[in-house]
Amino acid sequence: QVRLEESGGGSVQAGDSLRLSCAVSGRTFSRDTMGWYRQPPGKEREFVAAISWSGGYTNYKESVKGRFTISRDGAKKNLYLQMNNLKPEDTAIYYCAAGPGNNDATWFKPNYWGQGTQVTVSS
User: Fold this and answer.
1) pLDDT profile of the chain (123 residues), mean per 10
2) Cα separation values, 84 from 13, 34, 41, 54, 100, Å
């Protein structure tokens, strides 16, 4: 059974940092794009960041550029999101995702999802 499990969420103050992790089990996504989505309170789920299967290309939502960094380990099993200078508008449930995508991570169609981890940023 394929499983993506997020961890690392929590409640922080504006300006703080968090590092989200996504542990993959049941298969590897060595040829797939992986990424992070989030769902703010009362809003639709939105794209945050993606990383190509090679790890050589990344793509970010405009509002997180320069603050968030997506990475994946060499074995292509785990995914990370380093979030710095967090803002209240980053408050959301964050989801790990995996699926087909293009070589530079500008297109991504997840077909596997984690259960999500809550990130709350207070001002």
Assistant:
1) 95 98 90 96 97 93 98 83 98 96 92 97 97
2) 11, 20, 21, 24, 28
